[in-house]
Specification:
Elements: H1 3-36, H2 46-72, E1 88-91, E2 95-98, E3 103-107, E4 110-115, H3 120-125, E5 133-136, E6 139-146
Parallel strand pairs: 2-4
Antiparallel strand pairs: 1-2, 1-6, 3-4, 5-6
Helix pairs in contact: 1-2
C-alpha cells in the first residue's frame, strides 16, 4: 500500500471511529430524555439540557461527515508534482497531508500533520515543487518529497 493510501485510510478510520462514538452519545442523550419524560414543572430544564446535548452531538456528526466527504475527494493514486490538495508533503521539518484539518496522526511509526488548504502553512507552500523552500512564521522549510 502506498504512503498516501495508508495516510488516507488512517484518517478515514479515525473519523469513522469518532463518528461512531458521537452517534452513541447522541442516542444515549435521546434515550435519557425519553426516560425522564415531560418536564416536572416550568423550571425543570433537565430534559431540555439532554435534548440540547443530543443536538450538539448531531451537529458534530454533520461536521465529521463533511470531513469524510473531503477525504473522499483525494485521489490516492495521484502523485503530486507540486503542493496541492491531496499532496503528502515531506519537508526538512515535518510531514504533512493536505486534505482536512485533523491534526497529528501516526502512520508507520511516523508523525504526519493532516492540514486543510485554509491554514497558513499550506498557503505558504501551495504550488511549490520538490526542493523548493517556503517560510512560515520566520522559519524556512524545504520540500524534500512529494507524494
Amino acid at each position: 500500500m502506498e504512503l498516501k493510501e495508508k495516510i488516507l485510510s488512517k484518517c478515514k478510520t479515525h473519523l469513522l471511529e469518532m463518528r461512531k462514538g458521537l452517534q452513541l452519545e447522541m442516542e444515549e442523550a435521546q434515550k435519557s430524555a425519553n426516560e425522564y419524560g415531560a418536564p416536572k414543572d416550568r423550571y425543570d430544564s433537565y430534559r431540555t439540557q439532554l435534548l440540547r446535548k443530543r443536538d450538539m452531538f448531531a451537529q458534530q456528526i454533520v461536521k465529521l461527515d463533511q470531513q469524510i466527504e473531503v477525504l473522499e475527494k483525494v485521489k490516492p493514486g495521484k502523485i503530486s508534482e507540486k503542493v496541492e490538495f491531496g499532496s503528502v508533503v515531506i519537508t526538512d521539518k515535518q510531514k504533512l497531508f493536505v486534505s482536512t484539518g485533523l491534526g497529528k496522526i501516526e502512520v508507520g511509526g511516523e508523525q504526519y500533520f493532516v492540514i486543510s488548504p485554509q491554514v497558513p502553512v499550506y498557503r505558504a507552500m501551495e504550488g511549490l515543487k520538490k526542493n523548493e523552500s517556503f517560510v512560515v512564521n520566520g522559519i524556512r522549510s524545504q520540500i524534500l518529497e512529494l507524494h
